[in-house]
Amino acid sequence: MWKKAITVLLVMLMVLPTVFAGGSEETASAETASDGGGDVTISMTWWGDTTRNEVYNAVIDEFEKANPGITVERPFSTWSNYFDRLSTQIAGGVAPDVMGMHQRYATEYAGRGALLDLQPYVDSGVLDLSDVPQSVIDTGRINGKLYMITQGITGSGISYFTKTFDDLGIAYPDVDWTWDDYVACLEEIKAAADAAGKTDFWPSTDFSNDFYNFSYWVRGKGENLFSEDGQLGFTKESMKEWFDFWSDLRDRGLIVDAATSAEYVGIPLEQSLYATGQVAISVMPISQLWLYQDLVEDGNYCLVRFPHFADGPAPEYLSGAFYTINAKTEHPEEAAALISFFISNPTGQQIFKQEQGLPPATSALEFLSESASPAELRSIDFVQNHLVPNASPEPYPPAGYNEVMANYVNCANAVAFGEMTSEEATEYFFSVSESILN
Question: Could you tell me the CATH number of the domain that includes residue 287?
Answer without folding.
Answer: 3.40.190.10
